[in-house]
Amino acid sequence: MTPSFLQTPIEYLKGIGPQRANVLKREFSIFTYGDLLYNFPFRHVDKSTIHKVCDIQQEGVYMQFRGHVVGYQILGQQRNKRISAQFSDGTGTVELVWFNGLKWVEEILQEKHKDMVIFGKPTLFNHRWNISHPEIIDPKARQENNIPEHFYPLYNTSEKAKKAGLDSKAMAKLTATLLIQHKNSIFPEHLSKEIIDEHHLMSLKEALFNIHFPENQEKLNQANFRLKFDELFFTQLKLLKLKLLTERKFRGHIFAHVGESFNHFYHHRLKFDLTGAQKRVIKEIRADMGSGRQMNRLLQGDVGSGKTVTALLVMLIAHDNGFQSCLMAPTEILAQQHFANISRQLGDMGVSVALLTGSTKSAERRQILAGIADGSIHILIGTHALIEDSVVFRNLGLAVIDEQHRFGVEQRAKLWEKNRIPPHVLVMTATPIPRTLAMTVYGDLDLSVIDELPQGRKPIITAHYFERDRLKLLGFMRQQIDLGRQVFVVYPLITESENLDLIDLQNGYEAMSRYFPLPRYAVGMVHGRMKNEEKDYEMRRFSEGSTNILVSTTVIEVGIDIPNATVMVIENAERFGLSQLHQLRGRVGRGGAQSYCILMTKDQLSSDGRQRIQAMVSTTDGFEIANCDLKLRGPGDLQGTQQSGVLDFKIADIVKDEKLVAYTRALAKRILETDPDLSQPAHQVMADYLRVLMKSEKFWGMIS
Ligand code: ADP
Ligand code: MG
User: Is 82 within the bounds of a domain?
Assistant: First the structure.
C-alpha cells in the first residue's frame, strides 16, 4: 500500500454505498480507508471463552455461550411485538429477546436444535436472566473467517449512526472487510527500520490489524504501544520541525538596544525592584529578540509572580527600537484592566496606548485602526479582536498573549502574518503546565519561567470550611474587614441554569448585606450578565476601597489585581476545577499583608471533590496543583488545552504515557539534530509521513 491507498475514498469499500459513506463522514469524520483503520475500538471484549449459563452472576458483562434454542414465542402486538427464546447449554437456561429484525431472527430460530454460539450482556429482568439482541454466531462460519475474533472490538458510535445501521458491530465488520481485502497489500511504514528494531516495535501493518482484531492480549498490547509510539513521536517530530523551520525561515526583527523609554520607566516609574527571576527572564527575552531569529517563547509564572510588568518592560524595548507591540487578553475585563494599569504606569511618558475589544464603538474603532496603521499608537491592548484581518499594523514587532489557555499553534501563526517580518511572540501563562503537557501543547516554543514571587509576599493560608462553619466564616470576615482589608466572595457558574446561578449569587449578596449592613459596611456585586459600565463601576468601587466585600461569579477569575483584598471566600468550592481554584486564590496575597483563602463546601463531598480541596489546602505551588489536576481530570479537561488541537490523541494518553512523551521528544530531537531535513535515506519514510501530517494544517503552508 502506498500512502494513496490510505487515502482511498471510503466509498470504494465493499458494503458502503453513498448513504453509509455520508453517515461515516458526518458522524465519525471517516473519509478514507486510513480514517477507518485509525478509528480504533475503545475496548475489546473477550470472546475466547465460552461460559456456562449457570455461571451468570453479574449484570452488564459481555459473555459468550454455546448451546441451542429450546423454544421461542412471538409476544405482544405491533410496536410491542417481540421474540422471546429459551436458550440452553445443558447447565441452565437464559432468555433471549429481540425487539426488531424479527423476521430474520425467526428464520434462524426455525432451524431446530441448531448448534450456536451467542454473545451478549445478561441482565436481570423479573428475577430472570435475559439477553436482549444477542449476537448469534455460527461456530462453523467462525472457523472459516480469516479474522481472529477472540477479542472482539467495540467502537464508539452515535444514535444517528445506529439508525443508519452503523452500530459498533457494523463498524467492526467494515474494518474486518477492509483488513481482509488488503491482507496482502504492502502497508506503509512510517518509522525507520532503525527505530523499529531498536525499540522492538511491531510493524505498522501488524499493529493496525491487531489493534482491531488482536490474536491475543500480548499482541494487543504490542499494537497499542506501537501506535502510541507513532502518535507521540510524530507529534514531537512535527513540533520540533516546526520550531526549526520558523527559526530558519523567519528572520526576526533585531531589537538591538535598550533605550530611553525602557530606562526612564525602569529608573523612575517602577515602584519596586524586579525579582531575580524577572531580571533573568528579561535577559532571556532580550537575547532572543536581538538574535535575528523570530522569538516564540512561553513565559510561565504562577499567579502574582509579575509577568505583566515583565511584558511591559519588553514592550518598551520594542518601542525603543521603533516597533509597535500588542497585548492580547482572553477576556474583555482583563483587557480593560491591562489597559488601565499600563496607561497609568506609563503616565505621560509619550508612549501611546489604545484598547480595542469587541465592544469598541465603531467611530472609536475607526480611529484606533487608523492609529495602528499610521504608527501613532505604540501599544495596542485588546482581546481576540486584535487578530482580526481588519487590524493592520504599521510595524508590529512584538505580540504578547496573556493568560492564554485558549490559544493554539494556528492562532499564533495568525499573528505571524500581522507583519511582513513576523513579530516576536511572547505567550504568558499562569496556569502552570506540567512538563509533559508543556512539551506537547507548547512543544514549538522556548520556555522561560518566573519561579520566584516578589519579596515580602506571605504564602496564602488556605482553609476548608463546611457549611456548618458559616458563622465562624462571617466572624473571620468581620475581623479582617475591621482591620481595613477587603474580601472576595465567589460563586461558581453552573451553566446549565444561569438563572439559578444568579439566584444563588443574589441570595449570597443579600445574606452578606444583612450581616455586613450599611453604613458601616458596603457590599458590591459583579456578574457576567451585567452591563460593562455597571461591572466597571462595581469593580472600581471595590478597587478604590469603597466596598468591603465583592460578591461575584468567576468574572474575577484571571488577572484582576487588588492588593488590599486579603480574603478569598469560594462558595461551593467543590464545584470548581483545581486550576480554577488556584487562579481564584491568586487574586489575594498581592500586597504585604497575610492573606487567606477559604473554601466553603457542603458537608458531604465526592472523593474527587475531597481530593481537590485537599490539594488546595496542602500546597500553594501552582505546579503541584497542575500535576494533581492532570491526574484527577485528565488532559482533555484541562482548561483551554482542548482548543489547542495538539491534544487530540487517538490512542496516547498524555498522563499515563508521560514517560513515552518525554522519550519520543528526546528521540525526535536527536534525529533532527543530526538530520534536520530528514534527508538521509533511512529517514525518508518519516519525512514522507511528516509531510502528509503537516499538509493538513494551515500554518504549515506559511513556512513550507
Ligand atoms: P501576574 O500577571 O504574573 O499574575 P502581575 O504582573 O499582575 O502578576 O503582578 C502582580 C502584582 O505584583 C502587581 O501588583 C505587580 O505590580 C506586583 N509586582 C510585580 N513584580 C513585582 C516585584 N518585583 N516586586 C513587587 N511587586 C511586584
Ligand atoms: Mg497577569
Answer: yes
Kind of pairing, strands 82-88 and 63-75?
Answer: antiparallel
Residue 402 and residue 512 in one domain = no
Substitution candidate for ligand 1 out of 270, 300, 309 with most atoms within 8 A of CB: 309
In this structure, the answer to whether residues 475 and 609 fall within a common structural domain is: yes
On whether both 273 and 394 belong to a single domain, the answer is: yes
Dist. CA 272 → ligand 1 center (Å)? 9
Q: How many distinct structural domains can be found in the chain?
A: 3
- Taking the C-alpha atoms of residue 337 and residue 325, their distance in angstroms, rounded to an integer, is 17
Mean pLDDT by 10 residues, the chain (704 residues): 72 89 92 93 84 89 90 88 93 92 86 85 89 82 62 87 88 92 80 95 94 91 96 92 79 89 95 95 94 88 88 97 94 85 93 94 96 97 88 94 67 74 88 70 82 86 95 96 96 68 86 95 90 83 93 69 92 88 88 93 90 93 82 58 56 82 92 94 92 68 49
Same domain as 598, residue 529: yes
Q: Give, for ligand 1, the residue of 266, 270, 272, 342 to mutate: max count of ligand atoms closer than 8 Å to Cβ.
A: 272
**What is the domain range of residue 67?**
49-149
User: Is the bond preceding residue 519 a cis peptide, omega within 30 degrees?
Assistant: yes
Distances from the Cα of 84 to the Cα of 76, 111, 134, 326, angstroms: 10, 16, 12, 70
> Which residue has its alpha carbon closest to ligand 1 atom 17?
306
Whole-model pTM: value is 0.67
